Amino acid sequence: MKNLQHLKNLYSPIQPAVKTTQGDLIYQEYESSDELSDFIYCYWQLKTENDLSEDFKYRVVSDGCIDLFFNHHKPAESFLMGFCRKYTEFSIGTSFDYIGIRFRPAMFSMLFGINAKSLSERDSELKLHLPALAQWIQSEIKADQSFQTIVGILNTKLKPEFNLGSKSYDERFLKSLAIILERKGYLNTETDLDTGLSPRQLQRVFNFYLGTTAKSFSNVVRFQQILKTNPSRQRLKRDKLYFDLGFYDQAHFIKSFKTFYGVTPSEAFD
Fold it and tell me: Which of 27, 38, 183, 257 has the fewest Cβ atoms surrounding its Cβ within 10 A?
């Protein structure tokens, strides 16, 4: 669909807490197949090569996405992570291997018809929402399969789900979503989303597809835009990039950034 391709080109969610190999810890992302790329941003794996000396705290920053993930060695343990208005930190032990699917904003609910609001601000067991898919993961995913092999298996399994011709969705919502992404989250959602939806309808569809309000999602998109520029500490202070995204002073910018990331901009871009 043309609308979905446009949305895909407008937004690339960033998870910067673990980017590359860090000692015995590995984080990697793998692109989905072309047929699924309108819906899935990436597959990811977070694993240890050897036992760590202490429990690892994995910080997930706000990105507007819903993730499905499972324990590679115990695939019966599968979960969904919904929209979060602030960063989330997990203590996941000293040895682990998690594999996940990061769905583009709104795509999980468009595909599976699950109200995203029911998933917001928490992780929950996949079997409570999609029991057949949870059982399939438990049956088909093996501990000795490589990450690349599993990506291929998931691509094949999910492809039939991605037939939007048999699903209902609201074009006005997609247009509203596109406006937010085109404006990089810097807009007045009460006046700038003139797509034919009343304020009540707008709140309803955003809660269903994204799990939050248009305003909260816009704030996350604005935060992600700062991550995308990846400024140095010096450039952040010199160019005052936060003015371009509607922050009126440095104090409000730092407070907002810390809510979404968990640390200050200086710490994040050091």
Answer: 27
Which segments of 123-262 are extended strands (E)?
A: 123-125
Cβ–Cβ under 8 Å, residues 9 and 223 = no
User: Counting beta carbons within 10 angstroms of the beta carbon of residue 19, is it exposed (0 to 12), middle (13 to 18) or buried (19 or more)?
Assistant: exposed
Determine the length of the chain: 270
Q: Which residues of the chain have pLDDT under 70?
A: 1-2, 17-23, 163-168, 239
Q: Where are the beta strands (DSSP E) in 49-144?
A: 57-60, 66-71, 78-81, 88-91, 97-103, 123-125
DSSP assignment, residue 129?
T
Helix (H, G, I), strand (E, B) or coil at 86: coil
HSE-CB at 132 with a 13 A cutoff on CA atoms is 4
Contact 202, 208 (CB under 8 A): no
Task: Please give the structure tokens belonging to residue 43.
Answer: 């597959």
CA separation for the pair 122, 58 (Å, rounded): 15
